[in-house]
Amino acid sequence: MALSDIAAGIEVTAEQRDRGVATVDDTGDTLAAQLSDYEAELPCDPAAAAAVVEAYADGASVGSAGRSAGIAPMTAAKALHRLGVQGVSPLTPRQRDVVRDWIAAELPRADALTLTGGSETEFALAAYIETHDPIPAAADAVEGVLSDGGYGDDPLDETMSSVDDLL
Length: 167
Fold this sequence. Notes:
Layout: H1 3-7, H2 31-35, H3 46-57, H4 62-69, H5 73-82, H6 93-103, H7 109-116, H8 120-131, H9 136-148, H10 163-166
Helix pairs in contact: 3-4, 3-9, 4-5, 5-8, 6-7, 6-8
């Protein structure tokens, strides 16, 4: 039996409508314009937050990114956290548990500060991070900038072995 025998008797009874390509393109807006909707929730103005993200995506440290945007490094770290950047907290997970205990009023501040072993600045940033969640929609706007800057994507990732390869 040939393919023409199988297809015999098949006919098109309806036509598909060409609806075009569905796109959502915000590339015409600058990152600062996209972040302007979240100005009240950000620790700095949207232009400074955008400058911090762009500098950070280019490989600058949090402090350098903040200074290049004209804001304090602490404010830059807060902005990056609110914009969904992971790893901004200066404390380990165990130290962050101590900060959460202090926030829940289970520990006095002096004891929590001693137990974390961090500086006053690190403790203050960790407390901010524990009490302020990232802004999901703003994080979506920033995601493209961070991925375009190479942040988090390693072009040689496939060439390296992982822990699973050892098992």
